[in-house]
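Why show two proteins at once? Because comparison is the fastest way to build intuition. When a single record is shown, students tend to memorize it. When two are placed side by side, the eye starts asking what differs. So, the first record is below.
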Amino acid sequence: MCAAGGEVALFNLFPSMKSSAASSPVLQEALKATALASSSLQMCQAGLMAQARQHYGEAISKIGGALKDNSTAQDDSVVVALLTLGLFETLTYFKAIVPDTSPRKITSHCRGSLALLRYRAEQGVATSLDKGLLAFVVHLGMLEIFIGQEGRSPVLVGLKQAAWAKDGMVEPLLVRAIDYKHMIQHVLSSADIERASVGHVTEIFQIGIDIIRDIEAAANYRILSPGPRNKPGPDGAVDEDLNSFNHLLGRKSDASDAIAKGLYLTIRLHLIEYILSLSIALGEPTREELKTLVNLPHGLTAMEQVCEQIRIVFGFDGRDSACTIQGVGFNAWCMFWPMIAVLKSAFADKDTKMWIMDKCMAVSQASGFGMAMIGVMIPIETALESVCMETTSSTHLGISTSIRAGAWLNEENTSTQ
């Protein structure tokens, strides 16, 4: 995981993870299953996938035994193992290891991870590891919102209403971006959209432009709070609030900084597209609306900035890679979102779509990140005009199989009311 270096929030917690002799084999089997599945996709070796399935079965059996005992059920390694199996199930989706391959019927162990996180919180044994795991799951929920088929996330809705998950929320700037997307969707779906007042529409445009400016600042400047206002701690160290994309990255190296910047710029690209889609739906803009829209960044430039971050992270097109350590797993996982955003973007021409599909294949082969990268490449033999429609729909399948906690979370909220 070349972006790690002690600063990827979740993975930095693993060295201090508590594990008993009885429960550590649970995580070992889950890791073996996921690693073998990834290697099978990377090297196109079916034999490795067969071994992965065997370890998957062992992990399921051991997790079942661990959950029957309260002491082992509270062990850190068990909750990490469950989430790891969620990744395994997504990796193997396109290989049809899961018997029922309908996306709506696949039950991911990501749901089990959330159930166990809730249990640990209720038992008072939650640690910083739980917060890191929640940030990981929240990131999956954001993927559902911005590139998912339905554009919403039961996971985030459920977590927002769950008292036990108060430390697993989205950072305020990203909440504004999510709320703005929902605002645009509400206006576009309104029956009387054409009768919206000029003042109301102009205000909506301005709200979006303000968020875009703040996101651009977060992309370019890692420090959120001015340094001089921070008071040194007992050891003389100064804590800095960082634009770390929802605490996903420490942003202390060129690699993590490049990834965080790419993620923020991807959100920015989405918002620009939302504003333009509303403008197109409303028809010819008024003079007041034009005065506001003149401050909207150029869409082609915004998309190219995302492409440039993809080049920087992976070292494409002659760029010096920001990652100097071997391994691209975490980079592939994080940059999957920007790459799919470019593929789906209305600003991307045929050459750009072909370029990004080529890079998706290269990253998939190098990392074994077969979740949706393989889905991206499936229609490549078809006419390029169908890429945007056919390919983007298939890319969501890998995401949806990872995040099936929404129903359980909603059930919990209903039962507690």
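Second record. Ask yourself what differs from the first in the token line.
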Amino acid sequence: MATKSLSFFALFFTLFLVIFEVPEIEGQLCMREYVGDFPLSNCSAVETPLCHTKCRENGAEGGICYVAVEGEDEQRVESYKCLCNFCSETFCHDTPGPSQTLG
């Protein structure tokens, strides 16, 4: 009897991990940061299309520029990044849009 409940628990735990990790894994496969030959100084109207174009040249469906924020208050540091989308040309609603802040 104890073996049955232990097996059931192991199966339930494995399914739980699989169900909750799949969306995160898919997101990691779709969105990759572009590391290229141009530094992003900001997410301006000029650099956002440039990010999209560079991603398309590397086989992605599109790209998006965003501001990554680290730290708080006086120690806050902003860096501009370009994410390439390898799954679809349209971005889902929880992906940051041009000039939106992640933090």
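One difference worth noting in the second protein: The first helix runs from residue 2 to 30.
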